Here is the input.
Amino acid sequence: MKLTEEEKQIAVETSRKVSELFDPGKGNLIPILQRVQGELGYVPPEAMEVVAGYLDLPPVEVYGVVTFYNQFRTTPPGKHQVKVCMGTACHVKGGHIILDSWERRLGIKVGETTEDREYSLERVACVGCCTLAPVTLYDEEVIPKITPTKVDGLLFSHQLADKQQKEGNAGEK
Amino acid sequence: MENLIDKCCDKCTHAPATPCKDYIKCRKEGPICHQDETCKQKRQDFLAAINLSEGSANLQVLICAGTGCASSGSGKLVKKLEDELAANGLADQVQIKITGCHGFCEQGPLMIVEPRKTFYTRVEEEDVAEIVSSDLVKGEVVERLLFKDPNTGEAAKTYETVPFYARQKRLVLHNCGHINPEALSDYIVKDGYAGFSRALFELTPDQVVDEVKTSGLRGRGGGGFPTGMKWGFVRQAQGDKKYVVCNADEGDPGAFMDRSVLEGDPHAVLEGMMTCGYAVGADEGYIYVRAEYPLAIQRLKIAIAQAEECGIIGDNIMNSGFNFHLKIKAGAGAFVCGEETALLTSIEGNRGMPRVRPPFPANSGLWAKPTCLNNVETFANVPQILRNGGSWYASMGTEKSKGTKIFALTGKVNNTGLVEVPMGISMREIIFDIGGGIQGGKKFKAVQIGGPSGGCLPDELLDRPVDYDSLISVGAMMGSGGLVVMDETTCMVDVARFFLTFTQSESCGKCTPCREGTTRMLEILTRICNGEGKMEDIDTLERLGRVVKNTALCGLGQTCPNPILSTLRYFKDEYIAHIQDKHCPAGNCAALLTFRIDPEKCKGCGKCLKSCPAGAITGEKKMPHVIDVAKCIKCGSCLMGCKFEAIQKV
Here is the structure.
């Protein structure tokens, strides 16, 4: 996925602003990266270089940390993020079938973002809602006891809502 | 005075800058420094309002706002209840209290009416009006929302009579679901910080260490190392600066007790950490929490801010001369960071890779300073040990495992949720008495304990007492306490493969046995699940598992073969069936399955046709349908929907 010049510039500016909120000690590397990701939604190489410069570290060290931890992503996320829980309880109750359903419906593999950048799909180890297994996180919302049919329904209702919102906005203009 | 934690009048001089040693005691029994009946009365009124006595005219409605109930919709209930109370003119008599997790998430959203202890389950927005008009106004319980025993159909009037709770011993969880986790006053009413005050003013640091040693408390994060002994090591370690670190990086898939404690009773963890700081001589603490637990992080932030504001955390705490400061570090999603040295490396801003031990963190931990590292549940036990004494704690449990343990009971069991039981109880009691048996009347096959580090136990081992040592002797381990129950439809080879998929992707790559060993073992397991295994694979797995167990650098690697070795030990016949007969006895491994429709039983209702996400089912209305095997993705949607049991897995 290629970034536009504008996106790159925003990444550089944001990571500079975020870095300066912290003392330049190595212990702050992960908190800075978390904040950058919080603002941008991802940590592109351009941002890593700025952070590395601020903390006086080689960029490869920052790259190592970003790619080590599951929380960080290096490409822009979709407007909606779908995270499928793959914990033990969810697995026993068919979590992999749910992941298959999302992959098939969105037409992407886990870790990817759809072409129109509407959806990205991830797997998470456990969200701690094991009693409601299997679960999927749709943005921040926990969807309990999900089934393949529910995946279809959910996607349909969200797409419908988005469409109505867009039309509503267009109408206001 | 607007809150229990406020001063009663101007005679009270307590503030963080001018601290008073009686602060905690004074909140419940005060005023202590002066005699004033009005001040005393004000305090007692606040206490009575928080801790309702039986038969009180005032009521409290507790609404669970833990992650489980919140995702089942408890947030909407609060607003609705406020409106209904106002409409019925009850706003003054009935107080709404937002609480942490009650543990019975399966039945959520949960609502409790205190002091009557009425326990409502699966409460929906539409039910709120009825609860208000019959229960709160007229005192008539809404029968249909009570918990009903799935076996006897009997309704439980109070939460104490719900079988799920009746057989537990909730020590660490005693506040969870019963106090407002965002109110320090609630915690103090329940004797919070009394243990810490006792440590500060009545005991020397060495006596605190001895008290914890007497209690017999062992690390609840999995390893089971004696906590008192660890504190003693850090106390004796030489260093101008020492740290206390709380491991809240609860990464075991299937375990969520730490999350619930942090969300439901955050001050208990802070109190445990500060007591530890006093005992070992540390003045700074870190809590390393998973970033996936945003609510826990938020509750901790609130708790720390409140404690700082009251001078319970800070410099010269309650005029004792003891200083303590706490910081939160959000983890970034790496399972290996649950390993103590990896966690410390991560706080320092590096990739979370474990270090070679020795030196142990007790001597050289965070930034090479002596560090005392315990997990959430361990710290949450400490306040009660200090409050009631080590020998009181040691009276519970077995000879070598004292106290209670929280388990996260999930999988194919009727009552799922958090369960706290005394050490030494049998697994059968947990699963069948508290858990209410297997869902859908199916047959129990195994229980997986301890997550990716643990093992699977078959039916014949269920009567053994559960404690650290007995679990290790049967090839499992306590781990953090995840219990995933499996029935006859769970494939044990697939379970082993699931855990290896997890450990393989979470292996940090530093040491060869773990990095290469997990990859090879996963390859073999995948092959077996796909029906391409060979008989010698079984020997290879056993040999490889032993080598990784003996040679890997850290706990993750040393325990990752356990799921394989324990399933090979108790369920070898399933491996053989996959290899020799190309058959998955549990009907789970997709590559070895075909779905078909029995034309005799199919009524042609079309339900499966509509539910099939792959469009693999065809058929005319009222005529038997057919599955196109080439298109079928084996998801089981059709099977779940069919009312006539016409769909078969072969």
Observations:
- Residues 191-394 of chain B form a domain with the Rossmann fold fold (CATH 3.40.50.11540).
- The two ends of chain B are 71 Å apart (CA to CA).
- The first strand of chain B starts at residue 59 and ends at 64.
